[in-house]
Specification:
The longest helix is centred in the first third of the chain and has 12 residues, at 13-24. This protein has a four-stranded antiparallel sheet. It has helices at residues 13-24, 49-58; strands spanning 2-8, 29-35, 38-43, 62-68. It has two helices and four strands, in the order E-H-E-E-H-E. By secondary structure, the protein is of the alpha+beta class.
Length: 76
């Protein structure tokens, strides 16, 4: 599954690294691409929106929007 988080409060690459690290600790997360203001998280379905939001909040940032995109298939 792919979940896209819109995040406020991030101002630098250091913020993005902190969020990346926190999201990586959530059970089920396989990859995360984090840039200032957004995280695109790939997971196996075990990671809930609440767990992802809590991980971001633990780093001091706020999730203001969550979009689930379901499963993504690899491009062959």
């Amino acid at each position: 599954m792919t979940t896209i988080l819109t995040i406020t409060g991030m101002r630098s690459v250091h913020c993005a690294r902190a969020v990346y690290t926190a999201l990586g600790m959530v059970a089920g997360v396989t990859t995360a691409k984090v840039v200032i203001g957004e995280a695109i998280v790939e997971h196996d379905g075990r990671a809930s929106a609440a767990e992802l939001t809590a991980a971001v909040a633990m780093m001091g940032y706020q999730v203001v929007d969550i979009e689930d995109r379901g499963r993504t298939l690899p491009v062959l």
